[in-house]
User: Fold these one by one.
Assistant:
Number 1:
Amino acid sequence: MSWHAFLPMAIVLSSLLPGLVIFGLREDQQRLRVTLNLLGVTLKLLLVGSMLYGVSQGSEYRFSVPLLPGVPLVLQADALALLFVALSSLLWALTTVYAIGYLEDSPLRSRFFGYFSLCVSATVGLALAGNLVSFLLFYELLTLATFPLVVHRGTPESLRAGRVYLAYTVGGGTLVLMGVALLHSLAGTPDFQAAGYLLEQVDEHDMALRVAFALLILGLGVKAALIPLHGWLPQAMVAPAPVSALLHAVAVVKAGAFGIVRVVYDVFGAEALMQLDLTKPLLWLAAGTILYGSLRALQQRELKKRLAYSTISQVSYVTLGVALLGPIAAVGGLVHLVHQGLMKVTLFYCAGNFAETLGIHRIREMDGVGRRMPWTMTAFSIGALGMIGIPPIAGFISKWTLGLGALEVGQDWVLLVLLGSALLNATALSPLGWSQLIVEREFAI
Amino acid sequence: MNAALVSLLLPLAGALLLILLRPARSGRWVIALSLGALVAAIMALQVVLDHGERNLLVGGWEAGLAIRFRLTPLAALLLVFTAGLHLLVALYTARIAHAAGKEDYWALSCLLHAALAALWLSADLFNLYVTLELLSLVAVALVSLAGRKAWKPALNYLLLSLAGSLAYLLGVALIYGRYGVLDLALLAQLTEADGVTHLALLLMTLGLMLKAALWPLHLWLPPAHAAAPTAVSALLSALVVKGPLYILWLIWSEIAPVEFGRDAGLLFGTAGVLALLAGGWSALRAPRLKTLVAYSTVAQLGYALLALGLLLLLHLNEPRLHAALWLFVLAHGLAKVSMFLAAGELQSILGSKRVTGMRGASQNVPIALAAFAVAGGSLVGLPPSGGFLAKWLLLQPLFERPQHWPWAVGVLLGTLMSAAYVFRVVAHGFDRARPNPPSIRPDRLAQWLALLPALLVWGLALISEPLLLWLGGLGR
């Protein structure tokens, strides 16, 4: 097997193999564990970098082994895959370093980092997946690998959160399986194609295609936290901060949004969806989620919960951009995928720092934090401003592009949704950025 | 002598020698014998793949008088499967002595192996009856090895099993009275859709469903499988219930007139979906770990029954459904061995039989819990495990026509149900607030042995494409 055929698999293995070795380590082998983690991180970044370079030089990377009759397991590097792989590898690298520091001296680290590596392997795998069945395989693996991280603390609350998480995601995974199997029986499972591969089936199987689309979007919508399927995300906040970062920015929620992008563009295609008249419901769902998430974020008293609802709202920008079906809106959605990842990771690291250093969990307790932890607070403020969408932070660019895209396809009302959400976000997040600096209040550590 | 007969005679001879001589290290003898049987079965499989199906006449008599054995590719595959699982369980039991119950386990497990091997090879209704009867009696004896508390479930098992045999035998007698032959190949050409045949088929089906614990005739299974010693539970769930299922498949796919097939298919399919739901629900509510696993067998047999029903309902020559049926049997066998051995390890190490006693298992008994979870993943049907492959094949023909979609909803609900009871156990394992400390020192090798079949069932994905194509061709 040539290097070009193996590189996508090598990117998956670069975190999978260290992860499996880490499972076998004893708790006190701290140095070896850190070495393995950093080795995996470096290797993955190097491999992803070489793939980016190779693709820019015109090389093609495609890994394929037989899986089901007529459906190989395909890993390939197209533009969308590269975007997501680069994003999650980078954020995983940062989060691993953060987690090594965050979990210093806490128990069961081998298990934690083992599953952490499995998680990112699954994410990278589903990013590179070249057809629906391969995507499904890694999608389910991601669910399984995340569960032990959500319940890592092993307390009754985290077990409850884990149970809710499983109920939602396994249910969603089953729906995705059904959707994939249904599509396979209609049109087989070819590789993802830039304009979809179902256009020819529209006349003959319009009912079945609608059902399949609904199954897939509902199943993926669980991880992408579309309402009313978002219930697990705020609950999962009991997990340690690196896990929250993983759920919100690196892997899980992103995997759902990424899956929706794949299904809309590379499986069904804009043309087929237009003919089936399926984009309107998706658009409404996304717009509703954006407003609902922003609104609920306002009501939360706990910092991490407020951030969780803000994620629910922000990730739906991606879905919104995709559902608009215009080229500009799609760019806006994808840029937002990257931007939201970067900003959310920042916010969760900061929230973790507040919790660990000062014992702050609730928003009420945050007054005066800016003086005690100025650097963390600066980072937090930049993240918050980005969430609101203030120029020149990337959040502004993605929202601007989304707005332009909406105008381009004649859905002007979307602008109101964007504006409303920006206002709500400003109310929810900006006081955090200011009152701590201005107000100085005594509080217990 | 043919390799298939060697694979049958080795465990039979082993059983007799173990009973007569009572050697000191029975476990090692059984491991050696089942390894030999496995090699012979693989050779038989090789032969049948190269030269096709063949008849084996025992005792040198002419056809019609001799006991006719028939070596088909499927029978050869099942021989390999039986010998392989027997070897795995024997390895585990040799390591963990209390998993066997009593020393008599070794002779009985060999006899069980021989009875099953004879069942896979048999080609006439009466032979099948004899092997089935032997199988059930040995299984009852094995259950009772667990001691006094297992006597009641074992006795129930015996009585219901005898009732099943009687119903089956009555059906066979009716067939013999009507047609005068019992050979499957001859009957396949003779049977007509008349009242006597109908009644005979009904009786045989009832008897077999009772013996295979197919819903709604499953009530004897959970107490018996839960009360048996660990190694016995693994053998019973993985192998024994598959015997009557195989006969059921033979009867309906070979000798039953096509006119009856549709009704029976509807019946089997409905019973299968209900088994998935009812069995899953009971597993979800079961207070004890082994009862949970036993109910999961009832539920999982629902998949096989559904595949059989759809086979009759849609097309008898639909290769994907044949492959799905036998893949369910193989994947369930492997996963269930792993699950019962893991459950035995968890129980004895943590000193509790209750599901809630598994708290903290992810720290204290990580490999056994991993075995349970990985095997459970295949039962749920997570890709790319064997259970997933089977489910994928089952769904494909269903999705092709919208009028069959309700069956797919049944599969969906069954999947959710299995996920719920598997994760119920796993979630307790991650409870760190109130962990249940180990009461004995864990044996790592035994836990790895429990994990091995679970890894094998996931490893099926590596050879899935040729395997599925080949299994699809087995239906003739």
Note: The beta strands of chain B are 54-58, 67-71.
Number 2:
Amino acid sequence: MEFAIISTLNGVTYGLLLFMVSAGLTLIFGMMGVLNFAHASFYMLGAYVAYAVSSIFGFWTGILVAPIVVGLVGMAVERFLLPRVHAHGHAHELLLTFGLALIIEELIKLFFGDFPVNYQMPEALRFSAFEIFGTGYPFYRMFIGAVAVIMFTVLWLLLTRTRTGIVVRAAERLPQMAEALGHNIPIVFMFVFGTGAALAGLAGAVAGAFYPTNPNMGIELGVIVFVVVVVGGLGSLKGSLVASLLIGLFSSFSVGLDWSVASMFDVVGLGDWARSVGGLLTLELSSVSATIPFALMLIVLLVRPAGLMGERN
Amino acid sequence: MTSIQKILLALLLVLLIAVPPFLGLGWQNALINVLISSLFALAFNLLNGQAGLLSFGHAAYFGVGAFAALHLMIAVEDGLFFPTPLLPLAGGLAGLVVGVVAGYFSTMRSGVYFALVTLAIAELFHSLAPHLEGTFGGEAGVSSMRMPWMGFGFGTIIEVYYLTLGWVVLCGLALWAYTRTPFGRLTLALRDNEQRVKFLGYNAHYAKVIVFAVSAMMTGVAGALLAISNETANYSLFSGSVSAQVVLQTFVGGSTVFFGPVIGATVFTLFSFLISDLTRSWLFYQGLIFVLVMLYAPTGIGGVIDHHIRNRRQLDLAKIGGPYLVALGGGILIAAGTVFLTESAEVLFGQDYAMARDGASGGFPAYDLFGLSWSPLNPVTWLVPLVLLCGGVFILIRARRVIDRLWARKDEATTADMTVGAGGKE
């Protein structure tokens, strides 16, 4: 019981963090058809900018400045770099963002070193929210989750309840028609890209203070975020929320379980045979927890490439 | 291939055979790596350049080939009779088998989705391999020894070099010949218009599976050659950086030209061999080169060379050579400025400098770079890269304007030629 409740709490907060990063990625893909390989680098950039700023001006300033800086970087990428390769097709756009991801990672290593930096939450936030099974549950985890929920609500209201939201959705559906009606679509694209990057930056700034902040954090999260947006459906915000929670819960539960295929065979009395075969059959769930998201992504791509909630194939 | 190209290729081959015995061990090793990454990039580009399928998970087949060869090497150590020079066959076979299965599923999708499927397959291998002790040797990996065969000891690097050279040349030529077969031409058609291929009555999916499998097979041979050279391999061969490296090399070299990837593989492998000792930022430079090539020469080095060869008759070398040299000078200035700033950043933000600052009680002591001493508070230190960058950009823009004008004039001349030519035929 203790395991189940703690795992659920951890899984939901981790899932919400994943969602903060994947929301921007899926928004950008839905609108421009660009799979942004540099998106997870924006997450890392956010953490490092927040670290650099907060060491001088305090934690909250860092949290505020990081998304703005990262958002501006995102806008610059969309404005000055992507149009140059647009004529050569989506593959080149993808490759460009891939190259940018490499550059951002190396720049971070250049300025901050190839090791984790000491980016910490302020003492004022370092307390336990409540006692559960004799141990305190860190408030900061709840804080990460709350930031994600607030962000999702604001984004949702913005997209569905405001004029700007209508223009953005129109630009996503039929960009040429929206442009013909007099809306400045390139500016809309630039702001959507910037917003997506800023969200990733915010996620990095918030999560970096809790999880380790190192130059690998972008790549580590990046592949998982790809899994999330693919499983949820590329371009679908709701889908990526569901998929984020799913992957978050799965990864927090699986690390503590020692189920294997062999133990499933036990039910029908073939457990010993399976153990004698070894290999894949005796791998424990905890050790393949990093593998299953990719297997899930593979299955979704092959069976239903539109993902759980995507509309288009 | 034109006769000039054949002569050049033969000359290159003679050099590759004759020169290495006179080189040091480090260079011999570097050349082995150049050859292996060339074959890897060629195999990758069969899929990318020919069939238009961008794979982000070719590390999977590279790694599979390496492990297959190692397991066979272990069996040979234990007394199995198998000629050492034929070990890459095991890698090729393993790559082929895995490639058929992976290719069957991944080619069901195209575009971004194809890239994601290949990425997922490679990540499956990467995340499972450390847990499979028997096949991939866990985190430590699998090791073996090269066994002597028929008087060849395979104990020296030069022997391994010639073995690698033989296989790479053989496979490279086979891949080139493949693109010349009717089926190879069909692959090009798949890239350009899949719908039409289907209308012509071909099974597009099977055709793609075959191309994928051939590409994976050759990748497996490259992996096996690496395993033979290193005598060891672990799960890091499956990592995303291996897949990324081949993408980088291929596109910098030029994916539209058959031998373009070889250029990219050679440039990057030698670059890392020569530069990685000098600076820790070489990966940064590599990324920068890649992005610059993507932005300003999307067809890659090979594509640019090819473009010039195609237009060599219309091009007035005497006229365009001057502006090219000026542009090169501008590029060198920009590169110098960038390198100066990067290396300065590396020093100033490094741990050694932080300690030096502690020693100087918080001040900014001077640092050494390129044999000179620079003070961070002296404006001259920052004026140097600024002048280099601004001067370089200025020169480059001016030279580019001249070059653009010359090319435009050439295009006009070509159109005029063609009208005259067509008129003459009538």
Note: Chain B touches chain A at residues 54, 105, 108-109, 111-113, 115-117, 119-121, 123-124, 127-128, 131-132, 134-135, 240, 244, 247-248, 251, 280-281, 283-284, 286-288, 290-291, 294-295, 298, 342, 345-346, 349-351 (CB under 8 Å).
